[in-house]
Every structure is written in C-alpha cells, then in structure tokens.
C-alpha cells in the first residue's frame, strides 16, 4: 500500500499544487520526488477532467433534491482505475484535494480533511504573503511559481504528515 501523488485544484480548474512521490527500495529514500513540476501536464488535466465528470454524474445520481450542497459537492469520495485509487475531497470554497494511492487503500477522507483543515489553512490561508487567487500570469515562465503553492512550510509539513502514515510505503 502506498501514496503516489497529492494534487490541489483551485475553483478555476487550475492545478495549484502537485506532489509526486517516488518510492524506492531504500528505506531512507522513500518520499523523494517532485513538487509542482507537473501542474500543467496532461496527467493533471486528465485527472481534473475525470473528477469533474464523475462528480457531475454522482450529483445526478443523488435521489433527493433536498440534500445539502455539501453533500452534493462531496458525493464523490474515491474512484479506482486499474491499480490506482484517487481519493477526493472538495471544500466549500471549491478547492479540490486529491490523493492518488494504490487500490488497496479504502478511505482517505479523514486524511484529506486534515490536509485541508490543518495544513492548508495554517500555511496558505493564514499566511499574509500567500495570494488569495492563484492566477496564471500572462508572462508565466516554466520555472516561475506564479499560480502554484510554493510555501515551504506547507510542503514540508504535508510531506512529513503523509510520510508518517502507516500505509505511505
């Protein structure tokens, strides 16, 4: 059982954070990987497209129209494709948190909620230097951090938290 990647999408459908984990056989090398290198890749765009489509379908499958908006927003919790499972949480501010793991891990809703309510709120929302909107600039260069979460505290704390989980490796 393992976690392969962690994505955050904003309400404008942009991937604002991407963390890929590379799991090696060496005990000390687990967790190395890339941060914010694949935000604009086809993989992140396809993942968002799948999430959007499945969320729309799951919202239509809810029987009662009296369901709360949060129930509709979070009707989709996870889905499995081949050996991978994507775990999904959408906040009330329409941020989408996604963890990609192997298909043996059943439910990571509590983990996603902690990533949002503790680490994202503390390091990004409460940070006065962090942008409110992660817009892409017209002069965007590949190695520039505009439109991405580049807060070192957020990256370090989420890495430590995810690597401390018993099923990370």
UniProtKB/TrEMBL annotation:
<keyword id="KW-0931">ER-Golgi transport</keyword>
<comment type="subunit">
    <text>Part of the multisubunit transport protein particle (TRAPP) complex.</text>
</comment>
<dbReference type="InterPro" id="IPR007233">
    <property type="entry name" value="TRAPPC"/>
</dbReference>
<dbReference type="Pfam" id="PF04099">
    <property type="entry name" value="Sybindin"/>
</dbReference>
<keyword id="KW-0256">Endoplasmic reticulum</keyword>
<dbReference type="GO" id="GO:1990071">
    <property type="term" value="C:TRAPPII protein complex"/>
</dbReference>
<protein>
    <recommendedName>
        <fullName>Trafficking protein particle complex subunit</fullName>
    </recommendedName>
</protein>
<keyword id="KW-0333">Golgi apparatus</keyword>
<dbReference type="GO" id="GO:1990072">
    <property type="term" value="C:TRAPPIII protein complex"/>
</dbReference>
<dbReference type="GO" id="GO:0005783">
    <property type="term" value="C:endoplasmic reticulum"/>
</dbReference>
<dbReference type="GO" id="GO:0006888">
    <property type="term" value="P:endoplasmic reticulum to Golgi vesicle-mediated transport"/>
</dbReference>
<keyword id="KW-0813">Transport</keyword>
<dbReference type="InterPro" id="IPR011012">
    <property type="entry name" value="Longin-like_dom_sf"/>
</dbReference>
<dbReference type="GO" id="GO:1990070">
    <property type="term" value="C:TRAPPI protein complex"/>
</dbReference>
<dbReference type="GO" id="GO:0005085">
    <property type="term" value="F:guanyl-nucleotide exchange factor activity"/>
</dbReference>
<comment type="similarity">
    <text>Belongs to the TRAPP small subunits family. BET5 subfamily.</text>
</comment>
């Amino acid at each position: 059982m393992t976690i392969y990647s962690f994505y955050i999408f904003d309400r404008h459908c942009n991937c604002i954070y991407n963390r890929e984990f590379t799991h090696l056989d060496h005990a000390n090398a687990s967790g190395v990987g890339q941060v914010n290198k694949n935000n604009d890749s086809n993989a992140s765009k396809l993942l968002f497209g799948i999430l959007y489509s499945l969320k729309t379908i799951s919202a239509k499958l809810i029987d009662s129209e009296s369901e709360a908006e949060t129930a509709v927003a979070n009707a989709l919790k996870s889905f499995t494709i081949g050996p991978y499972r994507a775990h999904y949480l959408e906040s009330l501010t329409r941020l989408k948190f996604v963890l990609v793991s192997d298909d043996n891990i059943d439910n990571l809703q509590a983990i996603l909620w902690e990533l949002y309510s503790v680490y994202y709120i503390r390091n990004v929302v409460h940070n006065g230097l962090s942008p409110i909107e992660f817009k892409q600039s017209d002069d965007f260069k590949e190695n520039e951090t505009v439109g991405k979460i580049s807060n070192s505290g957020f990256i370090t704390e989420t890495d430590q938290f995810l690597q401390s989980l018993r099923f990370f490796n």
